[in-house]
Request: fold
Amino acid sequence: MRADARRNQEKLLAAAAEVFVGSGVDAPIRQIAARAGVGMGTIYRHFPTRSDLVVAVFRHQIEECAEAGPRLLSEAGSPFTALQRWIDLFVDLLVTKHGLAQALQSDNSRFAPLHAYFLDRLQPVATRLLDAAAEAGEIRPGIHPYELLRGIGNLCIGHDDDPRYDPRRLITLLLQGLRRP
Reply:
């Protein structure tokens, strides 16, 4: 893909993600086109069906989260700080992309492989961050990345149902529980 075409697609995916967060995955395509500053034909040329667009947005969000892990590890002052910042991005992915998560649970067969893709891309990042923090003596060793990601996911469930519930507070407590005494 040419660089300008890639930039246009990135712009379109970012616009779709913003619209999905505000209006859900059933938002009108014209709303996404307007946000991206393109015609509806451009969206349909890249993504012939709504499910194609939803899959592309979800994959894009997963990739952004996966690519952030190594960058945070190299930039942060400590591996634990990198882990905390990455978990914050992971929570953003889970909480703010609730419409995408609901789409994943639908009967549409296009969405079925996304859960495996989600784990295949994000579990190795979590492993690398956990291993680095354990090697630095900042957390106890033996934390299973899948269990951590699943636990965080479970804490994020129900966020929309109760405005008094803030999953980030519990996730902060969970991360503090990983620390070495």
The first helix runs from residue 3 to 23. The chain has a mean pLDDT of 88. The CA atoms of residues 158 and 165 lie 8 Å apart.
